[in-house]
Amino acid sequence: MAQGQWVQRLAVLASHLTITADRESLQTCQPLELAPTSSAQPAGTGGLVVAAEVAAALAAGRPVVALESTIISHGMPFPQNLETARQVEAVVRAHGATPATIAVLGGVPHVGLTPSQLESLARAGKAVRKVSRRDLPLVMALGLDGATTVSATMLLAARAGIAVFVTGGIGGVHRGGEATMDISADLTELGRTPVAVVCAGAKSVLDIPRTLEFLETQGVCVAAYGADEFPAFFTRCSGCRAPARVDTPAQAAAMIAASQKLALGGGMVLAVPIPDEQAAAGAAVERAISQALQEAEQRGVKGSEVTPFLLQRIQELTGGRSLEANIALVKNNAAVGARVAAALAALR
Ligand code: PSU
Ligand code: MN
């Protein structure tokens, strides 16, 4: 095909994408290339930019915690998203680990962001494309920015050599998923990528029993942290018993180490219940969730727009209480995740 035709095709493709409002500032940052340790880079790490601080920590075997960026640009409004992203990084540091927030900037996957890169992402909000595994080739080819979901963040964390990843909640099987087949790519990623995801479980906007069934099929070890029940994000209980329970960072680290020893290849879910002080808001949030679900159905919201739509409506309907609870649980997860990463580093 002639070059002109290619350019035209790319332009058509690009017109179907959400272009970020703030691309200029996102692209002005100078990324630090990870110096290859040998002449040949490990498979799949070509083109990955790892921040110097993160690369140094990994090389020295010090604890590193990966963080996702969809939660920043699609999960929370500005400026709370920026404040939370900064605080979560600070919590990780306070517990002795190095944070590595992951995103695609100008088509380049970045592991570890500078403060200005983090701010640009937070300001751009939903203008940045939400990127799961399937979207990586496109945003990379077209040089776009992308906020990575759990699936894409896990994949890039694994490529960089990071074993522990902290977020708020994972995607799951949506309600009605047995008919729509709307099952988050997070779940299949957990089945194939060796990263432990520390989260507060899955929101009750999802079908939690089917989410747990699907994770079992994918061979994913799911453990509740200090609890018998799998938590439902805003509430400590989901009505589902967790398949496993661990009570200390050392136990969680031992599970990760065992999985690595066998080269199982899959991930793990460490589900930390929301702190007690915040769980009180749970009942009000649950009511908002059922209303948001009804609205999504009436308006015919579909595909990757479902989760951001529900999150935003729940925040609006609860007058910010759900946002407050959300921020508190992510910070709590960051503390647990950093301790797990530290315990894992101590095993090596
Ligand atoms: N659940 C939350 N907050 C979030 C998400 C999920 O409580 O921000 C985001 C995560 O990035 C997750 C993604 O990976 O939504 C799942 O989207 P989907 O359901 O379209 O797979
Ligand atoms: Mn989906």
Could you explain how this protein is built, in words?
Helix content is 49%, strand content 12%. The radius of gyration is 19 Å and the shape is globular. Residues 10-32 and 34-39 have low confidence and may be disordered. The chain has helices spanning 3-15, 23-27, 52-59, 70-73, 80-94, 115-124, 136-142, 150-160, 177-180, 185-192, 208-217, 249-261, 276-279, 282-299, 306-317, 321-347, and strands at residues 49-50, 64-67, 98-105, 108-111, 129-131, 146-148, 164-166, 196-199, 221-225, 244-246, 268-271. The protein starts with a helix and ends with a helix. The protein is α/β, with parallel strands linked by helices and 348 residues long. Helix 5 (80-94) packs antiparallel against helix 6 and helix 14 (282-299) crosses helix 15. It is built from 16 helices and 11 strands. The chain folds into 2 domains: 30-162, Indigoidine synthase fold, CATH 3.40.1790.10; 163-348, Indigoidine synthase fold (3-Layer(aba) Sandwich), CATH 3.40.1790.10. Manganese (II) ion is lined by residues 182, 184, 303-304, 306.
Largest sheet: 11 strands, mixed
Instruction: Sketch the topology as an H/E string, one letter per element.
Output: HHEHEHHEEHEHEHEHHEHEEHEHHHH
Cα end-to-end separation: 53 Å
Number of helical elements = 16
Overall helicity: 40-55%
**Regions with pLDDT < 50 over 5+ consecutive residues?**
10-32, 34-39
What is the CA-based Rg, rounded?
19 Å
- What's the CATH superfamily of the largest domain, by name? Indigoidine synthase domain
Strand content: 5-15%
